[in-house]
Design brief:
- The strands form five sheets. An eight-stranded mixed beta sheet has the order 7-17-16-9-10-11-12-8. An eight-stranded parallel beta barrel has the order 19-20-21-22-23-24-25-26, surrounded by four helices.
- It is elongated and about 95 Å long.
- It is an alpha/beta fold.
- It is built from 27 helices and 26 strands.
């Protein structure tokens, strides 16, 4: 017997190292070093006859969160029979009919256990010859909706506090209220897995270009846009797509960032797919061929690609969820803003609780079909006078777009980043597109090709972009500033309260800021003098380069706010290209060379250290500077915790991440480690 006991104990210890246990720990952020414990006790048996049995019960419904006793029971059965599913159990209420005394004792005990542990309990019990034995109890697993309902109702019942309720809800659970989700029970025909770039579930016909997406969507079809990678020129197709799937790219690639901003399901870096535009196919490594028009389903929460139309659960808010969010707002210190460029995105962000816009990427406004040619003509201009002609047209577009944002965000700050990407990104790439543009704007195709080749860069992310554009082409910055302040004047006249914040991107030193600020001041002065009106505004900088963070004390006297662009700051600190990192980061994680994808969760040791230096040294130099973060990390719970601890004033994230950020900010303030 002793040898048998020894082997049983050893088996429990070794279970810590099974593949299933390892995967579970990875999913729930449980350290590998903990190990498991063993309890040795005498056995009771549920298979001694019809007056015996085993069951599993929950003190509340784990699917809906309803306050009702819920469970299953098998007469004349061992506990393993219930959980293994080898027999069909009866509802636990069956005990009430056959053994009412046992049921009453069970009901009283479950209520006592829940009151004692102050959480919904998952109970295992055995009845041996009419006597009930409680085998174990622990906090029960529950759906996202159930977790919110249980937490809110327990506060109303006086079992827990509002702070504890916030701690009980994982930010992962919040996704269920924001996006349709693929039903886990319905998942079949999984043909590939990529990076879960933007959550939710979507089904549609496969298309391989933005133009196809628009055409099919116009016919009323739901479409999945499949690309090797996306570029800003694909935006019109991405806007109408139900889902986006890319072969290349990471969690902060163009496809991922834009999809999250629009609340569209997306999977990026799906290396198991090979996309062939010419053939109109995407082929998996297992030889499965997806053709144009085929129906597929994307699970942007897990990164899985499935054939056919898979069942989904609809997204919808609830009164309990709104109550929880109101508690989050009461208990957080960090403000939450949104990254948005369109009135639609801004309205959705405000609806979801955003307290302003923390990043408006002005370049996105120029990719619309009615503006892109004007933008291209401006870039291709061969004289300052010619360029100014097109800038005057762009000013009108930019003015109208920004005015619309001010109206939506009436009374809330709108942080507008000056033009950031390299100019060559706006120009056509293919011969066909170059020839078409030449015909539309009346410029020789050879000249367009020559200028495009001259502007093309070897390393564009470190090249001619950001405030460097302002240095070389101050007239572009002047146009943008006039649009920003002119729109603020018109918004004020129309009865709104605009609060513009002009942000200078990609600075490296104080001399850049002084030069660009002069250009900004000149544009502002001209507008306000002409309109004879005073408008409140702020000028600040985006902290994206390591040099800027290390020299923040020198920048401080020149700015009113600093916003950390952690996408580029991470990229430059690591020397990783965020668009290519998806090719190797999964292997780095697998081999434990890094603890997390640094483009998803902020690296506190290096990138975070640079931020800490910047905040502490600039704050010591000048009081009153506002600090924020506007990279994709602004919607990540662990990164939000770090921002709270660092003393930032706000985080800014994609509109559909705003509720998650509100809860994460509250959890940080009440001392909660997300998803523990």
């Amino acid at each position: 017997p002793f040898e048998q006991l020894k082997m049983a104990v050893k088996a429990v210890f070794l279970s810590w190292h099974t593949p299933r246990a390892i995967v579970y720990r990875e999913m729930n952020n449980i350290p590998d070093i903990l190990g498991t414990a063993v309890s040795v006790q005498s056995m009771v048996f549920g298979n001694f006859g019809e007056d015996s049995g085993s069951g599993v019960a929950f003190t509340r419904n784990p699917s809906t969160g309803e306050h009702q006793f819920f469970g299953e029971y098998l007469f004349n059965a061992a506990g393993e029979d219930v959980v293994a599913g080898i027999r069909t159990p009866l509802p636990v209420e069956a005990l009430r009919e056959r053994m009412p005394g046992v049921y009453d004792e069970l009901f009283k005990t479950q209520a006592l256990l829940e009151k004692h542990y102050r959480d919904m309990q998952d109970i295992e019990f055995t009845v041996q010859e009419g006597v009930i034995y409680m085998l174990q109890t622990h906090s029960g697993k529950r759906t996202g909706r159930a977790s919110v309902k249980i937490a809110v109702e327990m506060v109303k019942e006086g079992l827990i506090t509002e702070s504890e309720a916030l701690m009980r809800v994982s930010t992962d659970h919040v996704e269920a209220f924001l996006h349709p989700m693929v039903d886990p029970a319905a998942k079949t025909d999984i043909i590939a897995t990529g990076l879960a770039a933007s959550p939710g579930g979507s089904t549609g016909r496969v298309v391989f270009s933005a133009e196809e997406a628009e055409e099919e969507a116009a016919k009323g079809h739901s479409v999945i846009l499949v690309r090797r990678e996306t570029t800003p020129e694909d935006i019109h197709g991405m806007r109408v797509a139900a889902g986006i799937l890319t072969e290349l790219g990471g969690m902060t690639s163009h496809a991922a960032v834009v999809a999250r901003g629009m609340g569209v399901c997306a999977i990026t870096g799906c290396g198991a797919l090979s996309v062939d535009y010419a053939a109109g196919t995407a082929t998996t490594i297992d030889g499965v061929v997806i053709k144009r028009g085929d129906v597929i389903t994307l699970d942007g929460t897990s990164g899985e690609v499935m054939l056919g139309d898979i069942a989904k659960t609809e997204a919808s808010s609830s009164d309990d969820f709104q109550v929880l969010l109101s508690w989050a707002d009461k208990h957080r210190r960090l403000k939450v803003r949104a990254n948005a460029e369109t009135p639609e995105d801004a309205a959705k962000a405000r609806e979801l609780g955003a307290e302003g816009i923390g990043l408006c990427r002005t370049e996105h406004m120029f990719f619309a079909a009615d503006r892109i040619d004007v933008m291209r003509a401006m870039i291709l201009s061969e004289s300052k006078e010619e360029r100014q002609t097109y800038l005057d047209q762009l000013l009108i577009f930019q003015h109208d777009d920004i005015l619309a944002l001010y109206k939506v965000m009436d009374g809330l700050p709108v942080t507008i980043r000056l033009l950031d990407p390299p100019l060559h990104e706006f120009l056509p790439q293919t011969e066909e597109d170059i020839n078409a543009l030449a015909e539309r704007i009346g410029k020789p195709a050879d000249k367009i090709r020559e200028i495009a080749e001259r502007l093309e860069e070897v390393n564009p992310m470190l090249g001619f972009r950001g405030c460097r554009l302002s240095v070389v082409y101050p007239e572009i910055t002047e146009m943008q500033v006039k649009a920003i302040i002119g729109a603020a004047v018109d918004a004020t006249v129309q009865g709104c309260k605009p609060l513009p914040e002009i942000m200078i991107p990609l600075v490296i030193n104080v001399r850049e800021i002084r030069l660009v600020t002069k250009i900004i001041d000149k544009g502002i002065h001209e507008v306000l003098k002409e309109k004879n009106i005073s408008i409140p505004y702020k000028i600040g900088t985006m902290m994206e380069t390591p040099r800027a963070t290390l020299g923040a004390h020198r920048l401080a006297p020149e700015v009113e706010f600093m916003s950390f662009g952690t996408n580029d700051l991470t990229q430059m600190t690591y020397g990783f290209s965020r668009d290519d990192a998806g090719k190797f980061i999964p292997r780095y994680l697998e081999k434990k060379l890094i603890d997390a994808d640094p483009f998803v969760t902020l690296d506190q040791r290096a990138v975070g250290r640079l931020m800490e230096i910047a905040v502490n040294e600039s704050r010591a130099k000048k009081k009153g500077i506002k600090y924020g973060i506007c990279g994709e990390h602004g919607g990540d719970p662990r990164s939000i915790r770090f921002c709270h601890d660092l003393g930032l004033d706000y985080v800014s994230c994609s509109p559909f991440r705003v509720p998650i950020a509100r809860i994460a900010a509250a959890q940080a303030n009440v001392g909660f480690e997300p998803n523990d």
